[in-house]
Each structure stands twice: as structure tokens, then as C-alpha cells.
Amino acid sequence: MPYVNIKVTGGSEAPSAEQKAELIRGVTELLSRVLNKNPETTVVVIDEIDMDNWGIGGKSVTVRRAEARNK
Q1: Which residue among 1, 2, 10, 41 is the active-site one?
Q2: Which residue positions are annotated as catalytic (predicted)?
């Protein structure tokens, strides 16, 4: 039983319900095609992480995106 965990930033830039459904479908199909895994037992979980709780290079994503907008 494959288990795939996708983490994305939440908030205003979070993926829509339709985008999440496409990710779940696509990952399930990929595992079925490439690894011959049973789609009926493939689990895909999407976690939305608040941008203040996701850090890159010592700064939160919130800060990094604000800096990028101000350049």
C-alpha cells in the first residue's frame, strides 16, 4: 500500500479543491503505471502548511515572498 504525502503552503496561495483532486488522481495513476501499484490501496495525503510555519534559508515563506514582491 503506497503512501504519498504532499506538503504545500496554505493560505491565499493554497491549491484549490480541483487542483488537489488532480494531484491525487495524478499521483495515484503514476504509481499504478510506473510501479504497478494497486490504485485502490494507494493513499495520497495533502498537507497545507501555513507559510509562517515553513522556513527556507532561515526565513519563513511569508517573509521570503514579501521580500520578493518588494524587489
Answers
A1: 2
A2: 2 (proton acceptor)
Q: Which three cell numbers stand for residue 31?
A: 504509481
pLDDT in tens, 15-65: 999 999 999 999 999 999 999 999 999 999 999 999 999 999 999 999 999
Q: What are phi and psi of 42, to 5 degrees?
A: -90, 130
Assess contact for 61 and 54: CB atoms under 8 A. Answer: yes
Q: Are 4 and 42 in contact (CB under 8 A)?
A: yes
**What is the CATH class of 1-68?**
alpha beta
CB-count burial class (<10 Å; 0-12, 13-18, 19+) for 26: exposed
Phi, psi values for residue 29, rounded to 5°: -65, -40
